[in-house]
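Hi all, long-time lurker, first post. I run a small reading group and we've been trying to get comfortable going from sequence to structure in the token notation. Rather than ask abstract questions, I figured I'd post a concrete chain and ask someone more experienced to write out its structure so we can walk through it together at our next meeting. Sequence below, copied exactly:
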Amino acid sequence: MKSHVLSVGQCSADDARLARVLAVEADAHLDRAPSIQDALRMIPQHAYDLILVNRIIDGDGSPGIDLFAAAKNGGVAVPIMMVSDYQDAQAAAVAQGALPGFGKSALETPEVGQLLRQTLHSAARASNP
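-- Answer (accepted) --
Happy to help. Here is the structure in token form:
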């Protein structure tokens, strides 16, 4: 069964790269949410296995970390990762309950492919015990 991933706040070029890596590495489909508000509307409507959040939301420049608190307050149980090369952004996301994420510069590396496969495999097991 194909995994479903929601990408929040990436530019079109980065979403295309994410979609390609997810399809090849994890047999996953990528949906796009241009803003945090769009993501919060989409999450309850779909069975996402993972949410990937940009450090800075491309459309409005807001901090992606804002999604973590909103998701937690809204009872969202989907794993979330920050997409950022900045270690301070990764640390802040993990402090908010995110899984350790990755940077765009590492997107096409074997390590990120393995991280995505493992995360999506774990999410599938959790939703189908």
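A couple of things your group might point at:
Residues 21 and 109 are 10 Å apart (CA to CA).
The longest helix spans residues 110-127.
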